Task: inverse folding
């Protein structure tokens, strides 16, 4: 039996481990589970714990259902079947191995309680393309499937939604996440910090525009959080980015890592996917325009196929206003401009730090443009549609 640790966020104390285990399986319970699942040659085991060590202060395990990082939210999501909501709501398609619908989660084979309070999810090992392997066509297709599912799951579509009363789903997630990130708004007042050689090399002449405008956005963030919470709400993944999507070999599209799933604005998930695609170097900064165009237009098409009959600008506003999630990121980068070591997700090697700044610069400028456009769009829609 071979075990391989998979890339994940080592700073999140909720995640004890994520492993791919390849047979032959020498542990009888695991072998029996795999046999029941059709004799797969490998599985993924994700172990979640309420008592993980805190590595950085802005990543802590939640024990209250209201916490943005509730330690066992993903356990509830799988064991209650919420992860199948996007499948049930999505368009019916035929695939080579019998899956009938497009956007799905990995199959849950078992949920095993550990003796220390932890829980291990035994999951299907989905094979396919993910992260930087995804093509632009993959991005578009996944966004379309999400749009169709979220349109049908929207609270405003006139049909009762089974998910809305589940107490463990996250609520006001973007507000709680963004406002607990370090270093807080003070870094935007520290002019000297933005004169660091790495900041100058990476952000260049735009550095003080970023400092000033993200500082203003931070101070006014309450308006945007409230706006997102007032828009039509749907079931959101809330960690929707290329590393959490797999274009599976069976033809389906699979979403993994449901730790934050909950109530959010229509448009909020694609508003995370687009910047994260460039922030985490899955595509080149020069491709930002193409990614945004493909993801938004496909998500919109999915909404329209779902029977969405509200103004499409409400979903557009949800995407644009989600830029407020990133109020902390430029400041944290500047505060850590002396960082040495890995710069990529999951403590992986990445680009030189100044190059990371330079590659993220156009995304930060695009997010500021999103906020400007969101301001205009909110005024256009008016108080009948938008609460702030």
Result:
């Amino acid at each position: 039996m071979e075990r391989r640790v998979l890339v994940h966020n080592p700073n999140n104390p909720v995640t004890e481990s994520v492993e791919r285990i390849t047979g032959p399986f020498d542990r009888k319970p695991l072998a029996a589970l795999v046999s029941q699942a059709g004799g797969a040659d490998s599985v993924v085991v994700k172990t979640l714990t309420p008592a993980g060590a805190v590595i950085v202060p802005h990543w802590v395990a939640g024990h209250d259902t209201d916490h943005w990082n509730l330690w066992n939210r993903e356990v509830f999501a799988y064991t209650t079947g919420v992860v199948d909501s996007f499948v049930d709501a999505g368009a019916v398609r035929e695939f080579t191995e019998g899956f009938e619908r497009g956007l799905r989660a990995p199959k849950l084979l078992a949920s095993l309680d550990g003796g220390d309070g932890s829980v291990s999810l035994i999951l299907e090992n989905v094979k396919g393309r993910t992260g930087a392997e995804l093509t632009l066509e993959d991005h578009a297709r996944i966004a379309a499937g999400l749009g169709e599912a979220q349109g049908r799951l929207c609270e405003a579509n006139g049909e009762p939604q089974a998910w809305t009363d589940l107490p463990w789903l996250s609520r006001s997630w973007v507000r709680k996440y963004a406002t607990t990130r370090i270093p807080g708004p003070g870094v935007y007042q520290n002019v000297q910090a933005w004169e660091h050689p790495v900041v100058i090399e990476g952000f260049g002449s735009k550095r003080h525009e970023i400092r000033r405008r993200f500082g203003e956005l931070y101070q006014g963030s309450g308006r945007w959080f409230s706006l997102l919470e007032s828009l039509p709400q749907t079931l959101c993944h809330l960690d929707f980015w290329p590393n959490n999507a797999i274009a599976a070999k069976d033809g389906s599209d699979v979403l993994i890592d449901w730790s934050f799933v909950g109530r959010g604005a229509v448009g909020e998930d694609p508003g995370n996917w687009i910047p994260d695609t460039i922030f985490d170097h899955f595509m080149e900064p020069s491709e930002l325009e193409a990614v945004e165009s493909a993801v938004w237009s496909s998500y919109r098409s999915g909404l329209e196929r779902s029977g969405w009959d509200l103004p499409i600008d409400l979903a557009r506003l949800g995407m644009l206003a989600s830029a407020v999630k990133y109020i902390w990121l430029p400041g944290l980068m500047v505060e850590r401009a002396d960082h040495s070591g890995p710069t990529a997700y999951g403590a992986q090697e990445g680009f030189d730090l100044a190059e990371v700044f330079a590659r993220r610069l156009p995304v930060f400028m695009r997010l500021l443009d999103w906020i400007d456009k969101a301001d205009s769009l909110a005024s256009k829609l008016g108080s009948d549609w938008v609460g702030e």
